[in-house]
Amino acid sequence: MRRVLESLRLHGPSSQAALARRTELSRATVNSIVKSLREEGIAETRPVNGREFLVALVSRQGAVMSVQVNVTSLRASLFDFGTHARHDASVTFQEDTEEEGGDPELVVDMVRTLVSRAGLLSTDLAGVAVAVQAPLARATGTVTSWARLQLPAWRDIPVAESLQETLGVPVWAENDANLAALAEWTWGSGQGAADFLYAMCSAKVGGGLVIDGRIYRGGDGLAGEIGHMVLEPEGPVCFCGSRGCLTTFVSERSLLHALKSSGGGHTTLHQVIDSARRGDPACRRVLYEAGRHLGRAFANTAKLMAPSVVAVGGTLSKAGPLLFDSLVSSAEVQSLKVASPDIRFVPAALGDDAALLGGVAMVFAETGTGASALPAWALRQQTIQKPNSR
């Protein structure tokens, strides 16, 4: 059954004959497993023509909570697959204050608030996933030492273990870029790719690797941290302590800093992209250079792992050709096509919801359930803003 579930997650809806080939199980065994999955509400069959049916994963029961812990905000979404409803909440903080990243108490409060709003009990949750805007050490489950200043209230706290003890339901915690990568591989731009590299480029820069349908974490849990790949040894100092990391060239703050001398007065990356589309030469220049740096970072990474698809997510991905033209040309200069001739560079598909949806994908994977496609109601975000009182 595990092999059939993994095949459906990796390849999406499939015929029973295809499942038998991929899993190396007999057709009779696959038929029996599919029947059991249908009875449990985990899978359904969809007619293709009068003679053929496709098997697809579908989640019909239970509720999943996904929480996103960012430096300047907290977001939470409850996905109720029983009533086909999504409930959202968020709170923002002032940057460079002690409030950054909120705290475990606020996360617990948001979870309980959404559970109550949905008319559920905490025990109705199949699980809670927490996406953290920082790398987590695999051995301890805590925010890694060099990123603790970014989330001071989470210092030395084993994220999943602490929240699970308080909430009384299964909790999984993961770096936000890793979860975004998992969501994009499951339902977005990387669907069906055996080897997938994802970069989240917004206020911060993170990366995630999905290999054979699983997040690749490495020995210490920090694999995929493309944002801290050193591109220029004499470049700007990064908060991780190194110089010239990719983050210092393509994060929102670094791009805004690069534009200060131009006198444009831009305060957000969205504004930079809008101005570039209207022909602002300074904004077009910084996006061009951001693409060039990304192309170098991708080329260096891809020569080691040879992914079939590389996706760019986050706000920066919305720049379109203003970013991707220089990204692709920079990668070609690094002779990437010689090592990986079939590699594709694409914009991510799931937008700002990627990390939250990755939480759903993680709970599905951990509980042996899943959905081959996300229903429309799960993609409609109806954010309910909480007072900025903390």
Please summarize what this structure is.
Belongs to the ROK (NagC/XylR) family. By secondary structure, the chain is α/β, with parallel strands linked by helices. It has 3 domains: 2-57, Winged helix-like DNA-binding domain superfamily/Winged helix DNA-binding domain (Arc Repressor Mutant, subunit A); 63-179 and 352-369, 2-Layer Sandwich (Nucleotidyltransferase, domain 5); 191-349, ATPase, nucleotide binding domain (Nucleotidyltransferase, domain 5), CATH 3.30.420.
Notable traits:
390 residues; Nucleotidyltransferase, domain 5; 3 domains; five-stranded mixed beta sheet; 18% strand; disordered C terminus
In the sheet with the most strands, the strands line up as 5-4-3-6-7
Beta-strand segment tally: 12
**Strand count, sense and closure of the main sheet?**
5 strands, mixed
Secondary-structure element pattern, one letter each: HHHEEEEEHEHEHEEEHHHHEHHEHH
Instruction: Give the name of the CATH architecture of the largest domain.
Output: 2-Layer Sandwich
Shape: globular
Individual helix count: 14
Structural class: alpha/beta
Low-confidence stretches: 382-390
Mean pLDDT: 87
CATH superfamily assignment of the largest domain?
ATPase, nucleotide binding domain
Please give the radius of gyration in angstroms.
21 Å
Query: Helix coverage percent of residues?
Result: 25-40%
> Looking at CATH, which topology of the largest domain would you report?
Nucleotidyltransferase, domain 5
Number of domains: 3
In the CATH scheme, the class of the largest domain would be Alpha Beta
Span of the ends, CA to CA? 47 Å
Strand content: 15-25%
